[in-house]
Amino acid sequence: MADRRCKVVCVGTTRAGKSSLVQAFLYGYMSREYAGTVGVEFHSKTVFLPDGPVRLQLWDTAGHERFSALVPTYLKSAEAVLLTFDLTDRASFDEVTQYAELIAKHAVGLAPTRVLVLGNKSDLDDQRQVSHQEAAAKSIELGYDYMEVSATQPTNVVRCFRHLVAQVVAPDGRLEPTCMSRLRSPCSPSLISGPKRRS
Ligand SMILES: Nc1nc2c(ncn2[C@@H]2O[C@H](COP(=O)(O)OP(=O)(O)OP(=O)(O)O)[C@@H](O)[C@H]2O)c(=O)[nH]1
Ligand SMILES: [Mg+2]
């Protein structure tokens, strides 16, 4: 049983793939059928880090605007945030700025290192509307880290959750050892780190 708990709030435009990423993380697969989240869904899973187990409490919020009033409530007690957009949908990337404003307003004092921007659906490279460089530059400008993921394949799914939790467990901004070694590997461009600011 893990003593340490970490509350992660998933935000982002509707259909960006938040619930699919959570499913892929929890079960290793996702359903292709779209079933929009109604309000918010809660899940939990223990992640084993070098410093010990951490019980992850995942709050998967609905991106549809009719539920937008709920998001601030969950951001208020977030210890970490996954901000997902769809790489094949320019409009969802444009909303990253609005979500960053929401985070700044409601997750008061949350260090930017505890926010990870995810460009999802990297498997649909031929339909991509946002380049890796542009998304990484925007994330760095906001002080956030950036990673490209695919819930379908899945690619980088476990890694993004582990990276985020490691930021909470080691708030000095250093990456957990497994991430450090991967940063030197050929897949390293998938994780771009923003400047390490403290709250
Ligand atoms: N090709 C591809 N499709 C994906 C991926 N992730 C999600 N999808 C599809 O995108 C659609 C939306 O996925 P959801 O996970 O329901 O999106 P959401 O962000 O939770 O949406 P809301 O609950 O409305 O906020 C579904 O049809 C998924 O099958 C991915 O990595 N690749
Ligand atoms: Mg959902």
From TrEMBL:
<dbReference type="InterPro" id="IPR001806">
    <property type="entry name" value="Small_GTPase"/>
</dbReference>
<dbReference type="InterPro" id="IPR005225">
    <property type="entry name" value="Small_GTP-bd"/>
</dbReference>
<dbReference type="Pfam" id="PF00071">
    <property type="entry name" value="Ras"/>
</dbReference>
<keyword id="KW-0342">GTP-binding</keyword>
<dbReference type="GO" id="GO:0003924">
    <property type="term" value="F:GTPase activity"/>
</dbReference>
<dbReference type="InterPro" id="IPR050227">
    <property type="entry name" value="Rab"/>
</dbReference>
<dbReference type="GO" id="GO:0006886">
    <property type="term" value="P:intracellular protein transport"/>
</dbReference>
<dbReference type="GO" id="GO:0012505">
    <property type="term" value="C:endomembrane system"/>
</dbReference>
<dbReference type="GO" id="GO:0005769">
    <property type="term" value="C:early endosome"/>
</dbReference>
<protein>
    <submittedName>
        <fullName>Uncharacterized protein</fullName>
    </submittedName>
</protein>
<dbReference type="GO" id="GO:0005525">
    <property type="term" value="F:GTP binding"/>
</dbReference>
<keyword id="KW-0547">Nucleotide-binding</keyword>
<dbReference type="InterPro" id="IPR027417">
    <property type="entry name" value="P-loop_NTPase"/>
</dbReference>
